[in-house]
Design a protein that fits this description.
CATH architecture of the largest domain: Ribbon
Shape: elongated
Strand content: 25-35%
Strand order of the largest sheet: 4-3-5-6-11-7-8-9-10
CATH superfamily of the largest domain: Umud Fragment, subunit A
Order of helices and strands: HHHEEEEEEEEEEE
Number of strands: 11
CATH class of the largest domain: Mainly Beta
Number of domains: 2
Largest sheet: 9 strands, mixed
C-alpha cells in the first residue's frame, strides 16, 4: 500500500473530496461529482483512479451503485466520521446502501402520453437514476417510485419550479388535496396538480396565483401517482 504522499496529486484530491463530501452530506459522492470537484472532465479517468485507490486499500467500491464508493482508511487531516468499515457501516454517517435509486422516466408536461414501465426498478442506467434517501422515499421501496422532471411553473407556490424533479409513488388513486401526476386523455397531456374529486368531474388545482384550475370529467383523467418529494434544481 502506497502512503498518502506517494499517491498522485489527483488521487489525493479525490480522497480529500470524498472525505469532505461524505461528512457534509452524510453519503458519498457520485463519479460525476468527484470529476467536477477535482477538475477531471473524463468520468473514465475518475473511474480509473478510483479503481487504483481500491487496489491501494484506500477505498471500497460497489460498482453498480452510483454512490457506492467508501473511504476505508483515515487520510491525513481527514475526518474520522467519514471512514467506512468493510461492512458498510459508518460512525454516524449514512452509507450508500441506505440510498435508494429511482428511474427518471421523463418530463411532466403537455405532449405524448407518459407511460410508466411495469419493470420500474428492474433495470439500471446510472444516467437515468435519481438517488433518494429513505426520507425522500417516505419509507417506500424504491421499486414503487419513479421520477419526473417538471416543465413549467404552475406549482410555484408549492415550491416546485421549472426544472425540478418530483419523486412519485405509483398508485392509481389519491385523496382530495394531494398532489398528483395525472394523465388527461382528452387533452393528450400529463399534468402535475392538486387533485380534487368533485362528483362527476375532477378539479386539478395549480399552485400559481395567475393560473385557473383545470376541470375534467372523471372518465378523462387517470392518476399516475402521488408526489412524495421534490429534488431542487440548483440555480
Amino acid at each position: 500500500m502506497k502512503t498518502f504522499d506517494e499517491l498522485s496529486a489527483r488521487q489525493r484530491r479525490i480522497l480529500k473530496f470524498i472525505d469532505r463530501y461524505t461528512i457534509e452530506n452524510g453519503y458519498p459522492p457520485t463519479i460525476r461529482e468527484i470529476g467536477d470537484a477535482t477538475e477531471t472532465k473524463s468520468t473514465s479517468v475518475v473511474n480509473y483512479n478510483l479503481n487504483k485507490l481500491v487496489d491501494e486499500g484506500y477505498l471500497d467500491r460497489e460498482k453498480r451503485v452510483s454512490r457506492g464508493v467508501r473511504l476505508i482508511v483515515r487520510i491525513p487531516n481527514g475526518h474520522p466520521g467519514a471512514v467506512f468499515g468493510g461492512a458498510g457501516k459508518a460512525n454516524g454517517v449514512r452509507t450508500s446502501d441506505k440510498l435508494g435509486q429511482v428511474p427518471l422516466i421523463g418530463n411532466i408536461a403537455a405532449g405524448a402520453p407518459l407511460p410508466v414501465p411495469d419493470d420500474i426498478g428492474q433495470y439500471y442506467d446510472e444516467e437515468d437514476m435519481i438517488d433518494a434517501t429513505p426520507m425522500m422515499l417516505g419509507g417506500l421501496d424504491p421499486s414503487e417510485v419513479f421520477a419526473l422532471r417538471v416543465q413549467g411553473d404552475s406549482m410555484i407556490d408549492a415550491m416546485i419550479s421549472d426544472g425540478d424533479v418530483v419523486l412519485i409513488r405509483r398508485q392509481p388513486l389519491v385523496s382530495n388535496g394531494e398532489m398528483a401526476a395525472v394523465w388527461l386523455s382528452d387533452r393528450g397531456e400529463t399534468t402535475l396538480k392538486y387533485f380534487h374529486h368533485e362528483g362527476e368531474r375532477v378539479r386539478l388545482q395549480p399552485a400559481h396565483p395567475l393560473m385557473e384550475p383545470i376541470y375534467v370529467n372523471t372518465a378523462d383523467c387517470q392518476v399516475q401517482g402521488k408526489v412524495l418529494s421534490v429534488v431542487r434544481r440548483l440555480r
